[in-house]
Amino acid sequence: MIRATTSTFSDEMRAPLFNLLLIAGLAGSHLAPAAAQTATPAPQTAAISADAIKQREQELEATRQRQKSAEEAQAKLKAEIASLGQDRTQLNQQLIDTAANVRSVETKIGEAEQRLTALNGREKEMRTSLDSRRADIVEVLAALQRAGRRTPPALLVRPEDALQSLRTAMLLGAVVPELRGRAERIASELGELVALRKNIATERDQLAADRDKVRNDQTRLAALVDERQRQQASREKDLDAENARAITLSRQVGDLQGLITKMEQDLQSAAKAAEKAAEAAKQAEAKAAANAKPGPAAFKDRSRTSPAIAFASAKGLLPLPVNGTKIRDFGGSDGVGGVQKGISLASRPGSQVTTPCDGWVVYSGPFRSYGQLLILNAGGGYHVLIAGMERISVNIGQFVLTGEPVATMGSTSQVASILATNASQPVLYVEFRKDGTPIDPGPWWAANEGEKVRG
């Protein structure tokens, strides 16, 4: 009776069961000679050459299609930007919305990479576990082989086949209880491995799609920024001369407060910006005194040319200027025995930097150990300093809105090690000042993403 039952199941189980060795992470191990002998002979050279030529033609055609699509997208983008003309409101809206999209996708990419790391780690653990039980797996396979009447076929490669064969093997439990238990354990691990592989494939597909999307959005954003700066340059005839003079003046001072004072006193565009900031601050404070506490809706007017609300009234509303992880906080150690005067955010290479508040640019360029430095006059005696970017895309005297793109991070830290705990990745340094004194920016940041202002 036992021999009859075994024979009944053997034909169904033989080939799929041998998949276990490969699926369990043993693909790199030495297979049995019988399996090696049944390997398919290598295809002829002529066939390989024909396949290679066909594949190459397909790759070239795909490349041509991508290039054509890119050219069409560029033409469409240029037409869209041209249609904006001198409409400042529409341009600002496009800038802020696109920058928000970029940062949103950057966040999704970071989260997906973290999930993939965890999934890959679990898959490695599963493979290690199955590999460590090689002897147990081989013994199960050998027992099933002996139950058959013919030599088992060569190994297949689909994990689903192996899983199905193991489920079939459980039917032998009535005849071989021990074999059933061991097959169940292997099937459970194999089932988890199959599920992990599906999850990993899904995550990788989504990650690839997100990366494509962020590249497209970055291309669009770069075109919008160029148009914004072109319009700015047409309004400011002496822009290049002012920027060059700012760099010269920056070399004459040794600290940030000296730089702010020097810019707003000696540089025409920065002085005008400071004057506008002072006037706007008075108006905003008067308006704030008459109204209730402002909310995010106060920032919706994209045509504004002065801060929507007084900086002091913006507590709990402002977004961090870059996606990243806080590695140093205000008041903590700066690593050399001093106290941190701002916060440091470790970001991804190439991350988009946006303004945390409305304000006028009073400095834009390199400064000392800060790398590229951007200083905004937010009115009411408040200044916001952002440092460590690779490229800045706004000019001195320019008014920028909350959430507007102003800079891009590099691939490594641009800030001196005194401000960064990890120089191997980009680090953005942010500092708030009131009447020249650094203050804790903590109360100004929005509590969560839903409360962050996007312009």
UniProtKB/TrEMBL annotation:
Keywords: Coiled coil, Hydrolase, Metal-binding, Metalloprotease, Protease, Zinc
Coiled-coil boundaries: 50-122, 260-291
Lineage start: Bacteria, Pseudomonadati, Pseudomonadota, Alphaproteobacteria, Hyphomicrobiales
InterPro entries the record matches: Cell_wall_metabolism_enzyme, Dup_hybrid_motif, M23ase_b-sheet_dom
Entry-linked Gene3D superfamilies: 6.10.250.3150, Glucose Permease (Domain IIA) (2.70.70.10)
Signal sequence extent: none
Protein name per its UniProtKB record: Membrane protein
Naturally occurring in which organism (per UniProt): Bradyrhizobium iriomotense
Cofactor(s) required for function per UniProt: Zn(2+)
Segments forming domain M23ase beta-sheet core: 340-441
PANTHER family (UniProt xref): CELL DIVISION PROTEIN YTFB, PEPTIDASE-RELATED
CDD domains reported for this sequence: M23_peptidase (cd12797)
